[in-house]
Amino acid sequence: MDDRKYQGILSHELSKVRKLEDFAKDLSKSMYEKLITAELDKELRDDYIEHIIAHKPYKVTRAQFKDSASDALREEIERITKMLNDPLMKPTPPDWKKDKQVNLDKVLKLKRMRAKLVAASYGTTRSIARWSESKIVETYKRLEQLRAKDPTVRQKPVYPPTADIPQQTHTSKKLPSASALSATALRQVKR
Q1: Residue 116: burial class (beta carbons within 10 Å; 0-12, 13-18, 19+)
Q2: Minimal CA–CA distance to 94: which of 69, 116, 129?
Q3: 100 pLDDT exceeds 60?
Q4: What does the pLDDT look like over 108-140, one tens digit per residue?
Q5: Band of pLDDT at residue 34, cut at 50, 70 and 90
Q6: Helix (H, G, I), strand (E, B), or coil: what is residue 190?
Q7: pLDDT attached to residue 76
Q8: Do 70 and 48 contact (CB within 8 A), yes or no?
Q9: Where are the domains of the chain?
Q10: Is this prediction's pTM over 0.70?
Q11: CA-to-CA dists, residue 77 to 36, 45, 54, 161, angstroms
C-alpha cells in the first residue's frame, strides 16, 4: 500500500473517532442538562411547599402536597395570595380531588401543542412526550413568536372545535351471556 492510500484511510478513521467524541460530548451534556432540570424542578417544588406552609391561612401539612406538580403548587400560592389580600374571601384549603380530576380541555390543548411542536421539527413525538407541561408551553410560545416573525415557518394546522367532535355513546344493548358465548365457541370449533 502506498503512503497516500494509507494516509487517506488513517484520516478517514480519525474523522470517525472525532465524530464519536463529539457525539459522546453532546450526549453527556444533554444528560447533565436533564439532571439539572430534574434537580431544579425538585428544588422549586420544595420552595413552593415551604412558602405555602409559611403563609397558609388554613391547616395543611407537607404530606398533602407531596404529589402535587410545581404548576399546581404555583397556582396554590397565587390562590393563597388572593385570600390574604382579600379580607372578604374565606380561607379554604385547596380541593384535593381537583388535582386528581382530568381536565379534558387542558389535555387536548397540550396534545395539540405537542403535535404542533413535532410538526415544526422541535423533536420526535416520543421525546416531546417526556417534556414537562411548563417546557411544552414555553417552547410553544417561542414557536408562536417565531411564526409571527418568520412566515416561512410551518403554520399551525386548523383543528375542529371540541364541541363538534362526536363523543362515544354507550348502547343499552345487552352482551351475550356466558352460556351463549360457550355455545358459539362450540359451533366454531365444530366447523
Answers
A1: buried
A2: 69
A3: no
A4: 888 888 988 888 888 888 888 888 888 999 999
A5: low
A6: helix
A7: 87
A8: yes
A9: 1-100, 102-158
A10: no
A11: 24, 12, 11, 33
The closest of 77, 109, 111, 106 to 94, measured between CA atoms, is: 77
What confidence category does residue 11 fall into, taking pLDDT thresholds of 50, 70 and 90?
confident
Q: Which three cell numbers stand for residue 85?
A: 389580600
Which three three-digit cell numbers place residue 68? 402535587
As given in the structure block, the three cell numbers for residue 137 are: 408551553
H/E segment holding residue 39:
helix 3-55
Q: Report H helices in 56-177.
A: 70-85, 96-100, 104-119, 125-129, 133-149
Which cell goes with 152?
416561512
Give the helix, strand, coil percentages of the chain, each rounded to 5: 70, 0, 30
Q: Is the dihedral of CA 113, 114, 116, 121 positive or negative?
A: positive
